[in-house]
Hints:
The protein is an alpha/beta fold. It has 5 helices and 6 strands. The chain has helices at 31-44, 119-125, 138-151, 172-182, 190-198, and strands at residues 4-10, 48-53, 93-97, 128-136, 155-164, 186-188. It has a 6-stranded parallel beta sheet with strand order 3-2-1-4-5-6, with helices on both faces. The longest helix is centred in the first third of the chain and has 14 residues, at 31-44. Pyrazine-2-carboxylic acid binds next to helix 3.
Amino acid sequence: xxxxxxxxxxxxxxxxxxxxxxxxxxxxxxxxxxxxxxxxxxxxxxxxxxxxxxxxxxxxxxxxxxxxxxxxxxxxxxxxxxxxxxxxxxxxxxxxxxxxxxxxxxxxxxxxxxxxxxxxxxxxxxxxxxxxxxxxxxxxxxxxxxxxxxxxxxxxxxxxxxxxxxxxxxxxxxxxxxxxxxxxxxxxxxxxxxxxxxxxxx
Length: 202
Ligand code: VGL
Ligand code: ZN
């Protein structure tokens, strides 16, 4: 049986965008290319999934409680909302992660849908074989989600114009891209992805 493709949008939330509490430089630049691929998927009937960082107010992930990060993406806060310009098609699946107060849960594969189903199982049920992935941040949640997707056996394509990194240390995103490349991840732009999805020149 032919397995289908799907789009996984990682953590495109207000707190990771300009003005947010854990601002990724130019984080909002991912929105337009992601919307392009989302529209192509919606038109082709392919699943779109969006992960969100969904932390309790007290978690070891935050610097007030032993972690390294400023408070961000607290459950039900406006900082945890998806960026307002991100287009989310009807029927898209939200994956929440980081709800546990003891873990960082960078990977979307640590997350669950609103019905409590893990991402890996959802993708299996949808008979997804190929994942296009983009979002925030290249060196943390995108990296972890991409590597987990490869480990789980998916054919993974990273959308190179739809990612942005935190780069706490200069070069972190570069290193993450090299690591993903070594793991066998493919790279393409949102325009190339649209061409692949629609089979038409875009
Ligand atoms: C992320 C740092 C802390 C991410 C989440 O989404 O990449 N980064 N929490
Ligand atoms: Zn977080």
